[in-house]
Structures are given as structure tokens and as C-alpha cells.
């Protein structure tokens, strides 16, 4: 996917003016947060499970080479093939080679962020292979020619009316004659059409929530059952996974699964949790004839050795964006690349470079809500701050910001200079407010005053008043300090 | 120094110093009423957060060293701000990876540093204040105080002892107001959108006053309130607890008392 993160400020301006997007966001912002809180309240061991999950991932990441090789061994033992791919281009070519060998013309897909990361759909189309998204949200945005705006709710930015229009526009060719508006009717319409595509597809592509080293299994969770049909019906199953998805055992995956859905949607479990191990065996009633796992590095091994390695614990639950007031204001597309929200503000600079993603780590008030809900306890604000340090070192900020900061810190380090300057600033702002208690604008402060007034200082600075009259701090004496 | 009289160094914070000295005096009053001896070290400027959050670690380290030096002789360090107290308590100890002596000094300072209201409640065990306030208030949980320092129940408990005061919660009390230090001027449109959500939630409660424990949030909320033309007073929680709500509210004209 081509990054548009450098245009972050333009993207934000457009998002804030986008009425349907704002309508969708206002609905979305409360739903997931309330459901997560309710699910957490019902599980006394929730916090302990978070700690266990963190420990599992930290152990797996510290021994990643070992567990990946073990995983490969188990996949091969079950009759599958593992393909090691250093980057997106290698992963795309590998998928194409598999499909060519197998004469694949169409492939159903369950949700995969890695597919977005490597731009797989466009690549397959260019090579004459039709990708068919089967997750309802992904299906909607595929029809719309867009990208996901959320890691688990890809079409969260779409209103029901927009979906009605899209379905009516694209489904008439399949004989649909009515523009449905009710959600159940829309779901049913998509389900009927997708059923035929599932049956006709030559291959199925899924992502992976977990790779299990001890068994070579691939775990995928969905609420629609579409991954099951994607895996089982076609003759070839291709798994797209990045290397940090591996955990040692089924028990480990099960532990993390207990926090995953609760954190993401507030469900105890997702409706479907599917374990796929190798191709169809002789006595299996169904399953694919071929089973391939693409293991993509795509920049992860570099992150693993860096100060940003904690982000590799991420299980893509989406809680950070669900709880982020910045994401809630602008939606996912504004971030300009695959991963939005606090996750994107940390991961995207690692994958596409801080130069390209320079605006994202700054787009946070460090309110800390993301870290407080992250099931993997990833210190997201701290990692964003570290990216800001990298950006600062590379002088990526504009000159005004750099000079302003330099001037401020020069003064802040010198109390003898700071004291008189703050006294002057207080007096000046106070004077400009002319007794109104606030300023509607003042030079150089449009960033603040375009959206709000600047309250005026009360009078002299605290330090000046304190120094002048220690006793004035006792209002019991009746005087105003 | 007698054991019974806690010796407190007040970290005034740069925003209180410049914009709202009343909060500093309110903090002194509350601390003295609770039996503390309060001093204000004259060499303090700012906690360094603007540099820290802009990725300027060298400047942050310099500023942190001068704060540590100014305050390390006190028994306690108290700030009328969760954000600045959080900086001293949670972040200073992480700044000195290569300077073990300074790291140890920062750790010692962190251990005795507190946000004002939680210090009154949790350390000094203050349960009531003698203050009165007419009308209903809603309380905004400033992010750093809430998530870095667990300041949530303490201000509500003390507010419950204020005569005539009702607290009406807004359901997004724990959601950021959009201030975020330099965030509010670097990403002003997002910040304005966030603070508009905040003012809408506050106005919806019908409360006549909004309180919080951090000047950054309060300047942001007050500025948006007055821009939107709402008649809601904005104050630091310490002003109400110290019975100083006879002063004009933040951003209100000098002749307006509520």
C-alpha cells in the first residue's frame, strides 16, 4: 500500500469535514469501549491474563528463531509448505507462483492486514487473478475501492446508507433489484452472493491471529465464519502471516484468546475460532489439497532488535484505536497507511520509515488511554515519544517548531531569565485582554486561538507575588494575594 | 524539623505561575491547613515536559537536573498538577540511563513527589475541607493524573465535603480534553474537535462549574467554553477545596465572580 502519511494534516482536515465519517465515528466511539469494560468486569482474572499474555509473547519474541523453525518443522510434518519472505515483493511473488502452479483464477480471502500491507489484491488483479474479500467489512470496502480504516472493523467509516448505495450499485449485475436498507437484509444479500463465490473459488487466502509452533497450526478468529469457508472449500489454502505471530503452544494461544475478543469487541470469544493444521488428510471429510504458509518479515526482525520491539507483542485487537480520542476524531484513513491509531503511530514509522510517517507519533496527546487498555501492555505513548526523539534527531520538524522549542528550552534552563520573561508575558497577555479575562487572538497563536480563546493571566506571576509577600498566601487574613 | 510538620516543597508549575497564581495560593493554603510547612524554591521553572514530549531528551535532562537539585532536600514535593507531578514521579527516573548517580537522585525525588489532591488524601489523610461552593460541578479527570498517578476518587471525596456543592459526573470524564501540551497547537483541528466533545459533555450535565486538576486542560476547556458562548465556570479543583471560588473563574472578566 502506497503511504499517504506525509499528507497527514490534509487528511485530517478532510476527515473532520467528512460528515458521513463523523457520523460513523460518533456511533463507533462508545460501543466498543463500553463492551470491553463490561467484559473485563465479568472476568476476575482479566488483569492476570494480560500479564500471562505479555509473558507468552515476550518469551516467543525472545526465542523467535527457535519457534519459527519449530513451526516450520510442524507444518512440513503435517504436509504443508512454509515460504520465508523477507519483504512484500517476495511475498507477492510467492503467492503468484503458488497460484500459477495451481492454475488459480479466483481466490476468496478472509481478513488480513498483511494483505493490505503488501498490496496483494491489486497485484493479483494485475496478474489476472480475482481476489474476493469475504469478511463483510472488507467486502464493502473492496466494492468501494477503499482500504480498511480499522484493524478489526475495516468499514467502520461507512454509514448504512453508503453501504446500501454500494450494494445496489454493484449487485444489480447479479440480479438484485431492490436497494435494501435494513442491516439484516444487507447482510443477507452479501451472504447469498458470497456463498456462490466461496463455492467457485480455486484458492483461499487467510491471515493468522496465531501460529502455533508445537503443532504447525494456524489460528484465525472471525465473527462471520468466512475464514472457515475460505480455508476448507478451495483446493489451496494460503496463509499470510508475519513472523511475530508465532506462540509456542496451543495453551499459549488459548490464554491470549481469552483476552483478545474481550478486549476487541467485548465478546468472551469471537464467534469462530478456527485451528487449521496442514492440508486435508486421507480420512478428513473436507479441507484443501494444498496448505502454504507465507512467513513475512517485512521489517519485523529489524524492530525486534530495536527500542521499539514491544510493539511486536501486538495482537491487532484494535482496542487502542477504539479508545483513542484522536482516532475517534479523524478515523483511520487519515493516518495514511495500513495501521491507524496509536498502533499505527508506533508501527508505521518502523515499517515505512520515520521520514514518511513523521506526523503520526506526534498525533497523540499522550492521554494514555491506549496503553491502559492494551491487552499486551505495550507502552504506546512511550514508544511514540521515542519516535519523536528519532524525528527530532533527523530534524524532521519544521523550522518554526524547532526554533520555538530551542528558544523555550534555552529560557527554561535559566531561572534568572525565565522569571522576568514570565512576568513580562503575564503582563502583556493581561494587558491585551483589556479586562475581558481572555484573548480572542494574539500574534503567533493562531494554532490555539482559531478554535478557542486564550484565557488571560490573572495578574502578576505566582513567583513574583510569593516573593513580594509571603503572608499574602494566607487568605484568612482577608486580603487578595 | 519536627516529625509532625511535613516539609513540603511546592512545585508551582509553569502554567499556574503564569496564568493562575490563585491555584498556587490555594495549594499553599490546603497544605498549611493540613499541617504542612510549605516552601517555594525560587529556581524552579518548568518540569520539562514540552521538551520531553517533543523528543528533545538532552534539554529535558538539563531541566530535570535543575528540578532535582532544587527539590531533593524536601521531605515531600507537591504539584497542583497530575501532569507535572507525573513527569517528576514517572518519567524523571527514566531519563538517566547513562548517569547512575543522577538516576538514583531522580528515583529518590520521584518517591516523595505527589499530585496535590492525592497528597492531601492519600498521604496526609485529609478527609474533609472547610469550604463552600454554590451550585453543581462536574469533574474532568486529567489524563496524567488519572492514568499515571491514579487520581480519581481523591478529588471527589474531598469535594463531597464542600458545603453546598453537588458533583454531576459527565460520562466522558476520563476522556482527554485535547490539550496534550504542544499537541494543541501542532494539531489544532484535532484538538479543537476533542475539546468540543468535552465541552458538549460538560454542558449536557447542566453543571454550572467544571473542575479539573491541571491548568493545561483548564485553559483548553475554558478557552473553548467561552468561544462557544457557554455560561460554565472553569476552575482548578484546588480553588474550590481552598474556598477560593470567590475569584473570577478562568477566562472570566475581572468583575465576574462565578
Can you describe what's shown?
- The complex is a heterodimer of chains A (about 475) and B (about 260).
- Chain A is an alpha/beta fold.
- Among the domains of chain A are: about 45-300, Rossmann fold; about 410-475, no CATH class.
- Chain A is built from 22 helices and twelve strands.
- In chain A, strands 1-10-7-4-2-3 form a six-stranded parallel sheet, with helices on both faces. Chain A has a four-stranded mixed sheet with strand order 8-5-6-9. Chain A has a two-stranded antiparallel ribbon with strand order 11-12.
- The model of chain A is unreliable at about 475-480 (pLDDT under 50).
- Chain B folds into two domains: about 5-120, Rossmann fold; about 130-240, Rossmann fold, CATH 3.40.50.
- Chain B has helices spanning about 15-20, 20-35, 50-55, 55-70, 80-90, 100-110, 115-125, 145-150, 155-160, 185, 190-205, 215-230, 235-240; strands spanning about 5-10, 35-40, 75-80, 115, 130-140, 165, 210, 235.
- A four-stranded parallel sheet of chain B has the order 2-1-3-4, sandwiched between helices. Chain B has a four-stranded parallel sheet with strand order 6-5-7-8.
- In chain B, helix 12 links the parallel strand 7 and strand 8.
- In chain B, helix 5 (about 80-90) packs parallel to helix 8.
- Chain B starts with 6 loop residues before the first strand and ends in a 17-residue tail after the last helix.
- Classes of the chains: A alpha/beta (about 475), B alpha/beta (about 260).
- Chains A and B meet through helix 1, helix 15, helix 17, helix 18 and helix 19 of A and helix 1, helix 2, helix 3, helix 4 and helix 8 of B.
Amino acid at each position: 500500500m502506497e503511504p499517504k502519511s506525509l499528507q497527514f494534516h490534509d487528511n485530517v482536515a478532510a476527515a473532520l469535514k467528512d460528515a458521513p465519517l463523523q457520523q460513523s465515528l460518533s456511533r463507533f466511539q462508545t460501543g466498543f469501549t463500553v463492551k470491553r469494560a463490561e467484559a473485563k468486569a465479568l472476568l476476575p482474572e482479566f488483569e492476570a491474563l494480560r500479564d500471562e499474555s505479555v509473558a507468552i509473547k515476550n518469551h516467543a519474541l525472545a526465542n523467535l528463531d527457535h519457534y519459527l523453525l519449530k513451526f516450520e518443522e510442524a507444518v512440513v510434518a503435517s504436509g504443508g509448505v512454509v515460504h520465508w519472505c523477507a519483504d512484500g515483493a517476495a511475498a507477492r511473488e510467492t503467492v503468484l507462483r503458488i497460484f500459477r502452479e495451481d492454475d488459480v483464477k479466483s481466490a476468496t480471502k478472509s481478513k488480513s492486514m498483511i494483505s493490505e500491507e503488501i498490496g496483494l489484491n491489486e497485484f493479483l488483479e494485475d496478474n489476472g487473478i480475482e481476489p474476493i474479500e469475504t469478511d463483510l467489512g472488507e467486502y464493502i470496502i473492496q466494492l468501494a475501492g477503499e482500504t480498511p480504516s480499522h484493524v478489526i472493523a475495516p468499514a467502520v467509516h461507512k454509514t448504512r446508507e453508503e453501504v446500501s448505495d454500494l450494494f445496489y450499485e454493484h449487485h444489480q449485475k447479479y440480479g438484485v433489484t431492490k436497494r435494501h436498507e435494513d442491516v439484516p437484509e444487507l447482510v443477507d444479500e452479501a451472504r447469498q452472493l458470497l456463498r456462490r463465490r466461496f463455492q467457485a473459488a480455486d484458492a483461499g487466502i487467510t491471515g493468522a491471529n496465531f501460529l502455533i509452533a508445537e503443532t504447525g497450526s494456524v489460528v484465525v478468529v472471525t465473527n462471520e465464519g468466512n475464514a472457515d469457508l475460505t480455508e476448507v472449500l478451495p483446493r489451496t489454502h494460503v496463509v499470510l502471516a508475519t513472523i511475530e505471530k508465532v506462540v509456542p503452544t496451543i495453551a499459549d494461544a488459548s490464554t491470549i484468546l481469552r483476552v483478545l475478543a474481550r478486549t476487541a469487541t467485548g465478546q468472551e470469544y469471537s464467534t469462530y475460532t478456527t485451528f487449521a493444521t496442514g492440508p486435508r488428510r486421507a480420512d478428513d471429510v473436507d479441507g484443501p489439497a494444498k496448505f502454504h504458509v507465507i512467513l513475512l518479515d517485512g521489517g519485523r526482525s529489524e524492530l525486534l532488535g530495536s527500542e521499539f520491539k514491544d510493539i511486536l507483542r501486538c495482537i491487532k485487537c484494535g482496542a487502542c484505536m477504539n479508545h483513542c480520542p484522536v482516532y475517534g476524531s479523524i478515523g483511520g484513513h487519515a493516518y495514511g497507511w495500513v495501521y491507524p491509531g496509536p498502533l499505527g503511530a508506533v508501527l508505521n514509522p518502523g515499517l515505512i520509515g520515520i521520514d514518511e510517517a513523521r506526523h503520526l507519533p506526534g498525533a497523540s496527546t499522550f492521554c494514555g488511554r491506549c496503553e491502559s487498555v492494551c491487552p499486551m501492555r505495550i507502552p504506546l505513548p512511550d514508544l511514540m515519544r521515542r519516535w519523536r526523539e528519532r524525528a527530532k534527531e533527523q530534524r524532521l520538524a519544521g523550522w518554526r517548531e524547532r526554533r520555538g522549542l530551542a528558544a523555550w528550552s534555552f529560557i527554561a534552563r535559566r531561572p534568572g531569565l525565565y522569571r522576568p520573561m514570565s512576568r513580562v508575558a503575564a503582563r502583556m497577555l493581561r494587558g491585551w485582554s483589556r479586562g475581558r479575562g481572555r484573548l480572542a487572538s494574539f500574534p503567533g497563536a493562531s494554532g490555539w486561538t482559531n478554535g478557542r480563546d486564550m484565557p488571560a493571566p490573572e495578574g502578576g506571576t505566582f513567583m513574583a507575588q510569593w516573593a513580594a509577600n509571603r503572608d499574602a498566601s494566607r487568605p484568612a487574613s482577608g486580603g487578595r494575594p | 524539623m519536627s516529625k509532625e510538620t511535613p516539609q513540603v516543597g511546592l512545585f508551582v508549575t509553569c502554567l499556574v505561575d503564569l496564568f493562575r497564581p490563585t491555584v498556587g495560593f490555594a495549594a499553599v493554603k490546603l497544605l498549611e491547613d493540613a499541617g504542612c510547612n510549605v516552601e517555594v524554591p525560587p529556581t524552579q521553572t518548568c518540569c520539562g515536559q514540552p521538551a520531553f514530549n517533543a523528543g528533545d531528551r538532552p534539554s529535558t535532562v538539563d531541566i530535570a537536573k535543575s528540578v532535582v537539585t532544587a527539590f531533593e532536600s524536601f521531605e515531600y514535593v507537591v504539584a497542583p498538577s497530575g501532569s507535572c507531578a507525573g513527569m517528576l514521579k514517572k518519567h524523571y527516573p527514566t531519563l538517566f540511563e547513562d548517569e547512575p548517580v543522577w538516576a538514583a537522585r531522580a528515583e529518590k525525588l520521584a518517591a516523595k513527589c505527589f499530585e496535590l489532591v492525592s497528597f492531601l488524601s492519600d498521604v496526609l489523610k485529609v478527609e474533609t475541607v472547610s469550604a463552600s461552593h454554590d451550585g453543581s460541578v462536574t469533574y474532568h479527570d486529567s489524563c496524567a493524573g488519572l492514568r499515571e498517578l491514579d487520581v480519581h476518587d481523591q478529588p471527589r471525596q474531598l469535594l463531597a465535603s464542600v458545603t453546598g456543592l453537588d458533583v454531576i459526573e459527565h460520562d466522558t470524564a476520563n476522556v482527554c480534553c485535547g490539550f496534550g501540551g504542544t499537541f494543541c497547537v501542532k494539531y489544532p483541528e484535532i484538538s479543537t474537535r476533542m475539546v468540543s466533545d468535552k465541552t458538549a459533555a460538560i454542558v449536557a450535565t447542566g453543571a454550572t462549574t467544571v473542575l479539573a486538576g491541571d491548568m493545561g486542560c483548564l485553559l483548553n476547556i475554558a478557552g473553548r467554553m467561552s468561544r462557544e458562548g457557554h455560561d460554565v465556570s472553569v476552575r482548578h479543583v484546588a480553588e474550590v477545596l481552598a474556598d477560593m471560588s470567590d475569584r473570577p473563574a478562568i477566562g472570566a472578566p475581572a468583575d465576574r465572580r462565578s
